[in-house]
Amino acid sequence: MSDGADRDMGLDVALIQTCTPATAAAGLAHVEPLIRQAAAEGAQLILTPEGTNFLEQRKGLREVALSSETEDVCVKGLKALAAELKVWLLAGSVIVEAGVADDGRAANRSLLIGPDGQVMARYDKIHVFDVDLETGERWRESAVIRPGEATAVATTPWGGLGLTICYDLRFAYLHRALAQGGARLIAVPAAFTRPTGEAHWEVLLRARAIETGSFVLAPAQGGTHEDGRRTWGHSLVVAPWGEVVERLDHDHPAVLHARLDLSAVDKARRAVPALMHDRILHPPQ
């Protein structure tokens, strides 16, 4: 199929919103019915949130839950599901062993799985979330997650899919690089905290869509998790002109469907060709 034909196609996407439990087996049991529902309702591309296999910040329990990508029960199940249902499935992220020199940290990794059940693209989260919030919450993701070093634009039948994860959303240059590297869709799977989600989630997603002239697909974790964390939910699909195409207005597990007119990408980029107008600037002295 030609690139031009791909761009004229519509695309049925589904975003899965979850409240992922603390083990990979439970994570698969939680997300599988939602993926099956999405496929039965016609989705061609299905996206799950950050931490799809498990969310667990308590050290001992986290170490028990962690395994390699090839051995993770949830990853195995997601690959089998994609093959059975004949869909493209983005595991927004899974927490797995980093597969590099062992310093005790894991990888926070997106996996794009094709309809044959094979992993078509991988991306390890580049920006890790270290912050002290006014609520008293303290996050040191760098203590447990090894940051990735490479961007990723995956090839799909509908054009390039740029891969990001959660805190990456705050770094406009990453999304710009993905768009300039061929992304027409950008995935932002997330587990945003409630304070930052309420304040910044939607406005940042809309900004990234406008800046890049891309569809932004943002499946989210929502609710209170077994380890005590509370996530914002409110999954969104944003069009290249910045309008919200579809949204969930809650933090409960659910399936969010959207029909995308992919010609909107070219239309937005013709109207505001900012991706072509970079200038090299230096910090003030």
Overview of this protein structure:
This protein is an alpha/beta fold. Helix content is 28%, strand content 28%. It has helices at 3-8, 24-40, 59-65, 73-85, 172-180, 194-212, 263-271, and strands at residues 10-17, 45-47, 88-97, 106-113, 119-124, 130-132, 138-140, 153-156, 159-163, 183-187, 215-218, 222-224, 230-232, 236-238, 244-247, 254-261. The strands form 4 sheets. The protein has a 6-stranded mixed beta sheet. A 6-stranded mixed beta sheet has the order 8-9-10-11-14-15. Helix 2 runs parallel beside helix 4 (73-85). It is globular, with a radius of gyration of 18 Å. It starts with a helix and ends in a 14-residue tail after the last helix.
Calculate Rg over CA atoms.
18 Å
Shape, principal axes of CA atoms: globular
Number of helices: 7
Measured by DSSP, the beta-strand proportion falls in: 25-35%
Biggest sheet: strands side by side, in what order?
5-4-3-2-1-16
| Number of extended strands | 16
Mean of all residue-level pLDDT scores: 94
Give the ordered list of helices and strands.
Answer: HEHEHHEEEEEEEHEHEEEEEEH
Helix content range of the residues, please?
A: 25-40%
N-C termini distance: 51 Å
**Low-confidence parts lasting 5 or more residues at pLDDT below 50?**
1-7
- Helix and strand content put the structural class at alpha/beta
Biggest sheet layout: 6 strands, mixed
